[in-house]
Amino acid sequence: MIRITRNPIRPEAAIESVRRKAYGAVIAYVGTVRDTSGDHRRVIFMEHQAALQDLARQELERIAGEINRRWHLGDVSIIHRIGKLRTGEILLVVAIGAPHREEAFAACQYAIDSFKQVAHQWTTETLEEAPGPTPTGDAPGPRPPP
């Protein structure tokens, strides 16, 4: 199941969609919006552009297809939330069902890493301004006297 939604994600839905009696493993990942950016500034919100949801869907389908090709796993659920999200909100759920845990863990890790490589195309963060940034956006430092 590949789904893109504006509504809050229930991880249980993704997990239930990949559970089978023949499987010994269901691995799930729940990705949330962090409160701190990579450069240690406070994140106010993150926005996943609705205008690019077709691109997002294509990428998620490509990831699921690659999981099927590499690990022969067809029970893959990826749910991605678009729109404006506050810190702490769920933005991505990946669930993988498999006969054994090894391939389920590997496939889940692949899905997460692949998503992070492409999501920047439709994602923006709004950050708290650092005190005293220079006009070029370099790290803040002492300002020259007026």
Short description:
By secondary structure, the protein is of the alpha+beta class. Helices cover 31% and strands 29% of the residues.
Characterise this structure.
The protein has about 150 residues and is of the alpha+beta class. It has a single domain (about 1-125), classed as Molybdopterin biosynthesis MoaE subunit (Aldehyde Oxidoreductase, domain 3). Helix content is about 30%, strand content about 30%. The protein has 3 helices and 7 strands, in the order βαββαβββαβ. α2 runs antiparallel to α3 (about 100-120). The radius of gyration is 18 Å and the shape is elongated. The model is unreliable at about 130-145 (pLDDT under 50).
CATH class identity: Alpha Beta
Main-sheet strand order equals: 1-4-6-2
Instruction: Give helix and strand order, one letter per element, not per position.
Output: EHEEHEEEHE
User: With helices defined by DSSP (H or I, 4 residues minimum), what is the helix count?
Assistant: 3
- Number of E-state strands: 7
Give me the CATH architecture, please.
Answer: Alpha-Beta Complex
Q: Largest sheet at a glance?
A: 4 strands, mixed
Radius of gyration, taken over Cα atoms and rounded to an integer in Å? 18 Å
Question: SSE layout and pairings?
Answer:
Layout: E1 2-5, H1 11-18, E2 25-32, E3 43-48, H2 53-71, E4 76-81, E5 83-86, E6 90-98, H3 101-118, E7 123-127
Parallel strand pairs: 1-4
Antiparallel strand pairs: 2-6, 3-5, 3-7, 4-6
Helix pairs in contact: 2-3
